[in-house]
Amino acid sequence: MNHFDEQLRQRARQEPSPVPESFRRRVQAACDGLEEDETARSGRHRRRGAWKAWSAAAVVTLFVALPNVSVSAASALEQVPVLGSLVRVITLRNYFYDDGHSTAHVSVPQVEGAGTAGQQVNQEVQANIQSLLDQFYEDADLLAQTGGYQDLSVSYDVVTDNDHWFTLRVCAVQAQGSGNQILRYYHMDKDTGWQATLSDLFPEDSDYVTVLSGQVREQLEGEPDFFQDFSAIDPEQSFYWGEDGSLVLVFDEASVLPASYGNPEVVISAQVVEQLRQES
Question: Taking the model in full, what pTM does it have?
Fold first, then answer.
């Protein structure tokens, strides 16, 4: 076993995944009703018997997949290397859950080899996804008793990878009655080696919030459903870089336009961005 495989196995043992109490009760009840497989008395047959028992018991399904426990699996699931040949983004864990009322398919990414910036991003991403899972499992217990349905899907992709920036986007879609999409962007500045947010792009005395807010209002006021009570962007507004050097501001659902518009985007020209970055 190579060092990478061993690291993942150790992480799996150290980071148990929470399981709703209702799921435990149903699986235990099903297992108690099963007769012992006669072949489960020795070596390899014991493992087969245990697996058959588990398969029969799991009327609902829940498992955490660690796709990188082997070289072949890692090769199939790794993303295209980023930040140079020594850095890559892998799927650290996959969560699947289905109890008839609640379903989840969650992929947890991890940036490898990006130094301090990668460590910062990994901590934030994993904490945010764990928060979503905690709420999902809490709701799963309730829905199993009262009825109703929910779904959670979390995926990721790389939206920027150029000479200066790398941006990882994590997309979470929650559905319970109605749907809600949450987009989060994590930026690594290749020039400094640090994670960056919107405020880090501009000098400390820059009035970037006022300028960018004016750009947003100018572009969205043409929309008949624009929220006229919009006053200013968040100083750490979500964003990503356009290929031409423009800055694309991304808003949460129902923040500047009705939820039916999804996650609105406003493109700030490269010229405006460069002027703001040169302010002193």
Answer: 0.71
